[in-house]
Write a structure and sequence with these properties.
5% of the residues lie in helices and 41% in strands. By secondary structure, the chain is mostly beta strands. The longest helix has 4 residues.
């Protein structure tokens, strides 16, 4: 795939799963991404789409409003007719990777506390937690006595 778009953002509305007449599942979720800075900052709304088995899993239960996510996939631009008759465009990403990043969800609880042991949704969706720093006996402890009995 040569058209890869990766970004982090915040879920704007709870994810919803729909089924095509063929029976294939489609998960849609709207994600906000802030671009620019200062008074030039804009919010870019992107529709993220997952298809098939990835859409049928438990991921829908975790993609709630306020959840921070990392998304990577193929970017497409769609044109549609609005209710007022004007032509509008929307950005859509067919996601290959959708990771829950953390932060706080709409209820104000820490997101990491909701997910059982960082359970993996599929081969490309996961909850990643930061590695805990080593306590005590790290490799850079220069005050420890030097052991020169090297077995090779």
């Amino acid at each position: 795939m040569s058209n890869v778009f990766s970004f982090t953002g915040t879920v704007g509305r709870d994810a919803e799963v729909r089924y095509l007449p063929s029976g294939q599942a489609v998960l849609n979720v709207r994600v906000a991404n802030n671009i620019g800075f200062g008074d030039k900052q804009q919010t870019l709304w992107i529709t993220v789409v997952l298809w098939g088995k990835r859409a049928e899993g438990q991921l829908q239960n975790y993609l709630k409003k306020g959840q921070q996510v990392f998304v990577s996939g193929e970017l497409t631009m769609r044109e549609y007719q609005a209710n007022d008759g004007s032509t509008r465009t929307s950005l859509e990403v067919n996601a290959n990777i959708l990771d829950l990043v953390g932060g706080r969800n709409a209820e104000g609880r820490r997101s990491e506390q909701q997910y059982p042991q960082g359970g993996r949704q599929n081969s490309s969706s996961s909850v990643r937690e930061p590695a805990s720093p080593q306590q005590g006996g790290g490799y850079d402890n220069f005050d420890a006595p030097y052991d020169d009995d090297i077995p090779f």
